[in-house]
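Async update (no meeting this week)

Hi team, since we skipped the sync, here's where things stand on the single-chain job. The sequence we agreed to prioritize is pasted below, unchanged from the tracker. I ran it this morning and attached the output directly underneath so nobody has to dig for it. Comments welcome in thread, and please keep replies under the output.
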Amino acid sequence: MAASSRSPRSRARRSALQALYQWQMTGQSPDSIAEQFHDARPRRHMDEETFSELLQGVPARVEQLDARLAPFLDRPIAQVDAVERAILRMGAFELTERKDVPWRVVINEYVELAREFGAEQSHRYVNGILDSLAHSVRDASRRTG
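Output:
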């Protein structure tokens, strides 16, 4: 997807992925990363609320998110590639905490990020895990939408 055609929420997810990758790799606080991130990158056309919610929410709930993902992983979360790990955690966060966002939208957004930033087949891995998680955490009415 061309950068100009991304929605503000999609741009926020893309930026949050980069920030959360930095958090995973450096251990810096989300607040510190947000400050650095905003100083270094333009914030135009990005949904600030979504960016902040992901950057603050994923680290705050990382243990719960990892526990939700664990039954669907083929290896411990620590052994999952760092980019894929960040994408899966973000997707798990939205599937569990943002029930106003349709599950298909969540999966599609994170599959696209995996295509852009992940290894060659990571989009398939992300799709399978998030689809399984969606069926586990969303009720039947949400799964059909």
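Quick observations from my side:
DSSP finds eight helices and no strands in the chain.
The chain has a mean pLDDT of 90.
Reply here if anything looks off.
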